[in-house]
Amino acid sequence: MFDYYIRPFHKSYNTDSESCHTPSTISSRTPSRSNSTEDLDYVPELKELLHKDLKKAVVKRDVVCLFCWDKLECEGAHIIAQKNIPMTYDESSLLQRAGLTQKHQIQNGLLLCNKCHSQFDKLKRYVDLIDDKLVVKVVNETNDETSDKHKEWKDNVRMLKLVRSGWQENWTDIDDRRAVEPNGEMALHFVQNNRTKLPNRQALEFHKAACMIWRMAGGAETDEEYCSDDEDLVPVDTAALKRRFKVQDQQKL
Fold this sequence. Notes:
A three-stranded antiparallel sheet has the order 3-4-5. Helices cover 29% and strands 9% of the residues. It has helices at 2-5, 51-62, 94-97, 114-121, 148-168, 201-217, 238-244; strands at residues 74-78, 109-113, 125-130, 133-138, 186-187.
């Protein structure tokens, strides 16, 4: 279950052959031009998009870190970090279920500073949809309001709001963005607000779900606390089971 729900998103357990900053290998299939990072002229049609393509596209779209608005050490972060192992043979991958075809599409990317990127990849921050706006949320790891963890969470939220407030004046004449919305949320702002190139909301929902599951499970403080189930994880061939037990799909009845 870990490999299905957590591994595709969590930085510490990302075992994809390609790291976040390493160009991907050339695919044998031809990607659709409509799924290119930014319809970049220099991306050959016969090649998979590279991480540098994603980085260039999100820099153009977002300009600064979407979470804290800092400009330093910004990186192209992936929402779905790698392909997952499906639970069943006839189930699509998370990328496909989100309507994506490539890992390095702009719709699977966020421009984040190094610190925010690390928090996002460790499932400590996620993007939610509130009042039809994408907002950044900091995971509260406890329900105990008297605990040190809860106080740390409040401090982290307060500091993020303060950092955004410090940058707000720079945007007054550009898009009049607010560090904090009237409802108290911290909205994401895109300099290029083309809806077809904004972060994929289904992918963001998958990432949010991973954050909630990881939070409820208590996470893993060290590698020693994590036990991989790679060797035992085998997708279930539901189609074969249906044939064996002569089960008909509901749609065919």
